[in-house]
DNA sequence: ACCAGTCTATTCAATCTTGACTACTCTATG
DNA sequence: CATAGAGTAGTCAAGATTGAATAGACTGGT
């Protein structure tokens, strides 16, 4: 699973009704263009695709006063709402190494109830621990781990990384259980979106990118 | 950058000349189907694309004795060899969070000289540290980090993860400097490939997968 | 001898991703 | 007032990825 659908559904959901550019701006505001594949092309593609699949309802709207081509606004259908929650739960539980998916899940975690959030994160930790032992069992040759040579470093990387992920998740669980943040049903939510016309303080200045590409 | 080109170039290079199925089997042997997008479709696509771009030379070969369709064998061109080294160096230096790329880089690291490997890894650490401070500077609002609410957890995740990456890289550097493994120009290489007809001990049993999809 | 299953080897359509491009409006500046 | 630049909003073609499908040859059991 890529993070894009969850991000787009989440952004549209916050607004109730939003057009592509608004979604794009929100994702940028959240820093998602830094840690996910939330580029304009992907966002518009996801919107169209999900509209085709009945997760979003599309409304053609005249061009905005601010210039530019006519916009299409979207809102979640009931099916889209369910898919959003399904993706969110999956993002928090999946114990593989996709940081963008996890990040998106954390970004929307407060849309769940506190107890469910904790349960999902615990499940995540359980999965990681299990995966860890299955990997170490499976890839440790009879001839001892040294026989893997430098290839063993890859295993080491993945296992350490799973350990790191589990530790981090446990830390988050602790903070949540200690009462941090406001979850669903506990008062007004706090996922921020940009108000209509508001300036994005974290605009595409591209202040720090990866090394590659 | 995705890891697929590096993996495919590396696999072909090991053999001197290889067809798609051989590459696929090698990647599976290395466990790459577990930690990268090295699925058949991607492998064949990469081979064709790189042949089109002059990185690989293609040779049509009659169908093997073992049945199946006629195969195409590939070997690196000079340009392909350069591209391989470029991708390898980039994979080891890039300090973003793409574990598959790093894994592939580690898998082929012994194709470099020991001193260069260490230099690239040091550069990696340097980049990560710099990125870390630029992120913490940039995304820490005047109102204090608490004002970010649960969104701060995303930053925390990325920063911790960079710290983990840096620590792990330093560990690897240490082991390499202590004399571990056999690097280019130090005797016979040790990246394993499957010999023609050899059985893959880590065949597609798919013993442990991620949670999602 | 037959059939199911597995191995060899690759192709394909559908979908997703990327980076560049379009086109229009508003604003500041000399 | 011309015009460069930035902001608004979205499209497009090329490339990458995925999952399933194809098809012949061998293998083991009944």
TrEMBL record, chains A, B:
Coiled coil: none annotated. Residues 8-83 form the Transcription regulator PadR N-terminal domain. InterPro entries: Metal_resp_DNA-bind_regulator, Tscrpt_reg_PadR_N, WH-like_DNA-bd_sf, WH_DNA-bd_sf. Gene3D superfamilies: Winged helix-like DNA-binding domain superfamily/Winged helix DNA-binding domain. It holds the Pfam family PadR. This is Transcriptional regulator. It comes from Streptomyces inusitatus.
């Amino acid at each position: 699973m890529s993070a894009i659908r969850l991000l787009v559904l989440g952004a549209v959901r916050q607004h109730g009704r939003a057009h592509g550019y608004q979604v794009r701006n929100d994702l940028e505001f959240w820093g998602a263009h830094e840690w996910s594949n939330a580029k304009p092309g992907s966002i518009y593609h996801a919107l169209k695709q999900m509209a085709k699949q009945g997760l979003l309802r599309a409304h053609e709207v005249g061009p905005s006063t601010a210039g530019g081509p006519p916009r299409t606004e979207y809102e979640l259908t009931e099916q889209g709402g369910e898919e959003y929650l399904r993706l969110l739960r999956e993002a928090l539980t999946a114990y593989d190494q996709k940081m963008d998916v996890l990040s998106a899940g954390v970004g929307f975690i407060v849309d769940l109830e506190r107890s469910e959030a904790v349960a999902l994160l615990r499940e995540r930790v359980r999965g990681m621990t299990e995966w860890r032992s299955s990997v170490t069992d499976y890839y440790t040759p009879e001839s001892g781990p040294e026989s893997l040579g430098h290839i063993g470093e890859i295993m080491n990387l993945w296992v350490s990384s799973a350990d790191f992920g589990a530790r981090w998740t446990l830390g988050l669980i602790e903070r949540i259980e200690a009462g941090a943040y406001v979850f669903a049903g506990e008062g007004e939510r706090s996922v921020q979106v940009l108000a209509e016309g508001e300036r994005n303080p974290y605009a595409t200045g591209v202040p720090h990118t990866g090394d590659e590409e």
